[in-house]
């Protein structure tokens, strides 16, 4: 029994602390087995069909990384990560394929704000970010600023200005990437107008 639990824990931790019902079924835990694991406090149901290892670090980052491996940190979440904003967002802002089911994002916790993006540009400029030993997709600085300029009307003015100023000061920015992304995202004239003086 102990070896089974050790193997189960390892499997959970290898999957960001989260397993689907189908994964538990593949490990020979049916409905009753899953109930027994919950009753004994080994696992917790976090969403219909998803379970978290109870002793795993219960950071929202770990849950987001486990539930949405295909998503990309976007807007407020990415701006905070890069230090372009000092406001920690209450919601995780995630770019996802526009064909993704909206049901996936109905969670009690953590709070998710999905942005539905065309599949052909979803992976453009994707990098990796580390949060509490969990890795998530994130847009690189240049793609992020390109999108901020594209969606200027949807962003609070103060956040927008801080993002631009943070990017201008950032030694890790890559102007050639920014120009390439702006052409693909069809905002090259707007990017030149907004940032041209500083680039």
Description:
- The chain is of the alpha/beta class and 199 residues long.
- The chain folds into 2 domains: 1-56; 61-196, no CATH class.
- The protein has helices spanning 2-14, 21-26, 31-39, 60-67, 75-82, 119-122, 141-150, 157-169, 175-184, 188-195; strands spanning 18-20, 43-47, 50-53, 72-73, 92-97, 112-117, 126-131, 134-139.
- A 5-stranded mixed β-sheet has the order 6-5-4-8-7. Strands 1-3-2 form a 3-stranded antiparallel β-sheet.
- Helix 7 packs antiparallel against helix 8 (157-169).
- The protein is elongated, with a radius of gyration of 20 Å.
- 31% of the residues are buried.
- The mean pLDDT is 90.
- It comes from Anaerosacchariphilus polymeriproducens.
- This is Abortive infection protein.
């Amino acid at each position: 029994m102990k070896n089974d639990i050790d193997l189960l824990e390892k499997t959970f931790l290898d999957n960001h602390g989260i397993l689907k019902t189908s994964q538990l079924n593949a490990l020979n835990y049916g409905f009753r087995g899953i109930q027994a694991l919950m009753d004994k406090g080994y696992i917790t149901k976090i969403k219909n069909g998803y379970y978290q290892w109870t002793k795993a670090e219960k950071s929202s980052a770990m849950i987001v990384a486990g539930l949405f491996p295909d998503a990309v940190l976007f807007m407020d979440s990415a701006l905070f990560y890069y230090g372009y904003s000092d406001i920690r967002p209450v919601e995780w802002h995630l770019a996802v394929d526009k064909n993704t089911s909206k049901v996936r994002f109905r969670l009690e916790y953590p709070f998710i704000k999905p942005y539905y993006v065309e599949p052909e540009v979803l992976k453009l400029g994707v990098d990796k970010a580390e949060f509490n030993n969990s890795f998530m997709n994130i847009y690189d600085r240049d793609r992020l600023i390109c999108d901020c300029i594209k969606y200027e009307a949807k962003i609070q003015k103060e956040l927008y200005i801080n993002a631009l100023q943070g990017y201008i000061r950032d030694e890790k920015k890559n102007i050639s990437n920014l120009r390439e992304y702006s052409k693909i995202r069809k905002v090259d004239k707007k990017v030149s107008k907004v940032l041209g003086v500083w680039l």
